[in-house]
Amino acid sequence: MFDPLHKWLGIPPSEQPPHHYRLLGVTLFESDPDVIDSAADRQLSFLHELTGGEHGEAAEQLSNQVSLARLCLLNADKKAAYDEVLRRRRSKESSSELGPQPTAALQPTIPVNQLAAKQGTTGHPTGAAPTAPVLRPGPVEPKSPVRVQSRIAANAKRRRKTSSPFWMISAIAGIIAILMIFMAVREGHLKLDYSWITGTADPEGPSPATQPSVAETDSAPSTVPSMASNTPVVAAAPTSRQPSGQPNNRPTQSQRSTDRDDADNNRESSGAKAPVPKQRSLADLLKPPSPELVAAKPSIVRSPLPSAAELNEKLEVVNEVYGNELRGATKSNDPEVKIATARQLFRDGEQTSKDPVGRFAMWRYSRDLFTQAGSVADALATSDAISRFYEGYDRLSENLDVIRSLVSSDREWQSPADLVETVEAFVDEANQANRYELSVAAASAVLDSIGDGWSTKDRDLLNDLKKEASEADTQYSAFRDAVKAWSSSKRGTPKNQAASGEIGRFLVVARGDWDEAKLYFSMGDNRLLARAAELDLKQSQTDTAQREVADAWVIAVEGSRDAELREAVLNRAVSLIEAAISNLEGLEKGIAEKRLREVTKLLEDHRAHFPATSFVESQPTTFRSPGRILDNRRWTSTASRSDSAKSVRQRLEVGMGSHPRGLGAAAAGVELAGVETLAIDGQASPPVMETIDSDSKFGLLIDYHTPGGYTKRVFVGFATKPDRTFSLGPPWGKEQDKPDIEDSLPPSNHYDLDLNRWAPDTWDRRCWVTLFMQNCGYGRQAEASLSW
């Protein structure tokens, strides 16, 4: 039987069904979202290549599982709940395997002389039944020892005598094999994993009995009726048991991992000294605290940025081929004409895969036409697409040029909301990348060109963005200078100590990075801060030590004129005392609570005198605008005039009418922007849809938007039979009947969809999501609620 988990992902049957971490091929309880996301992309890219093969359906099912695993592990709340279930299962499995094993019942032993006597009896008195020998408590000494040699033992002795030459040959062969392995290891031709020999290797996953079922990790309430059927998506794994009478005292891989986890937890709570964090390099500290938001997918092979000569040559070619369209769009005062030409150039550029310079030239023209038309979102989306496909493209600088071009035109911005939102998102992203000068330039460009029609609220927002970015730029410039001074001076010199203090200050105030900041404060020129940092680095996890460190930090900033640093340090002291209180009782707890009130009062008084002093608090927590609804539409076919469809915000409803054969079609759609993951809860009545003909289907239509317009349609069926025909569809999105991709999901009342799974590489996070039903039977109804 074909096993896709084993054949494709290398997961043996003994580790099936795999937990999410094993399925993605990452370390157990991996906490880095980038690692998880990259691993999921890698698995999905591999599985998508197999969907057209012999086992395409199995590849699709595995892709669904990988997508669900990614969604679960990238959601902090779901990951925490999943990890708790997984740890509890692993701990339970470990304790059950390490506990007492069942043993065979002890049988009373009959002395050998009694046994021989019993065997010597050949008959019984007439009419009397044979009686069992009476067993008396306590040992019975035999009168004389009797040696009994069984036939098995005799045969074994003969085998040992007759097989000795073969034993010697086997031993010689074994010695030769060991010598060959030793020489191979010595010469470097063979490497041994000693961690498996010593039993210290990390397990790749728990046994099947420790795998939590989907029902336990699903956030959807169990009372919601099923959208298609009540069949669970994944059945629970059977419990593995140790055979009775065969005790196994050797710890399994999952037991060893659990023991190490427990040992780590015990070290954390036993009062041992906390490990000193490893100091990062100064080069790392100068990097942005998080990766760039728009990153290339692993499947995209990025081309080098074309030279000026190469680009000019291709621009001339594009101008010759599209001369009439470009001249008409440039001269026209109708923005729609410019947008139509820009979309055509972008779509044609997507098809130019073997000429990267030509594609760059076409997208460059497309971006400029979008800018001339005032289509802010499309212009920036085109720039994002260029950055995904070309190495070395400075997207932030190019996007600044787009913003400058937009505001420098003679266009009168009657409704500047889109432009203000665009500038705000750009400033947030540039600040995150430590490109504060670009933030200042963008806000200044808009402020210098706004007209009288702009509201005071918009002006104040732009002024605040400019001020915050300018202050952050000043702080970051001082930080860079301090890094250079620290690198060029000896440890312990006044220059080095001053630079250490400045580095620690920036890490705390601008980034909230206390782990790194403590290292530099301990080497700084402020003796009070250095003492507090040394205590913080050396502190044990005991509650008393935490309160002592908190007091040291409070003393260090007492009377300080640096308002931002003082607020950050007082916040640190409050958090340390709060952590200590959670483990205290009685009088000790009362003393700590009194100290907490005192330090909290210091912090409140400070904020009253210096409002909004901390730059790290003024920074936004997210750098992408939240998802929003752009449009709602509904549609029904003419097959039955009683078909129904309803689309209100995030709620979609469709239904078949009273056609005698159950024919008809209905669609309810919502257009979204900025949404990449989607949760769907729904129900159907009755729960099972009929299959009347090849057009019968029920599921989602997803239309993906790129700068070239809506260019891709995907149908995702809910337990829909394969090989469906598509003869009609809703008149929005890509507006075509047959989808580009057909996929299916197992029956469930809740789905978590990663929309990136089917998206084109140039998707700009805009899409239509449509609940679609066709020829599903008389009176069939379904509804779905979307969330993100």
UniProtKB/TrEMBL annotation:
<feature type="region of interest" description="Disordered">
    <location>
        <begin position="85"/>
        <end position="160"/>
    </location>
</feature>
<keyword id="KW-0472">Membrane</keyword>
<feature type="compositionally biased region" description="Basic and acidic residues">
    <location>
        <begin position="257"/>
        <end position="267"/>
    </location>
</feature>
<protein>
    <recommendedName>
        <fullName>J domain-containing protein</fullName>
    </recommendedName>
</protein>
<feature type="transmembrane region" description="Helical">
    <location>
        <begin position="166"/>
        <end position="185"/>
    </location>
</feature>
<feature type="region of interest" description="Disordered">
    <location>
        <begin position="727"/>
        <end position="746"/>
    </location>
</feature>
<feature type="region of interest" description="Disordered">
    <location>
        <begin position="203"/>
        <end position="290"/>
    </location>
</feature>
<feature type="compositionally biased region" description="Low complexity">
    <location>
        <begin position="120"/>
        <end position="133"/>
    </location>
</feature>
<keyword id="KW-0812">Transmembrane</keyword>
<feature type="compositionally biased region" description="Polar residues">
    <location>
        <begin position="239"/>
        <end position="256"/>
    </location>
</feature>
<keyword id="KW-1133">Transmembrane helix</keyword>
<feature type="compositionally biased region" description="Polar residues">
    <location>
        <begin position="208"/>
        <end position="232"/>
    </location>
</feature>
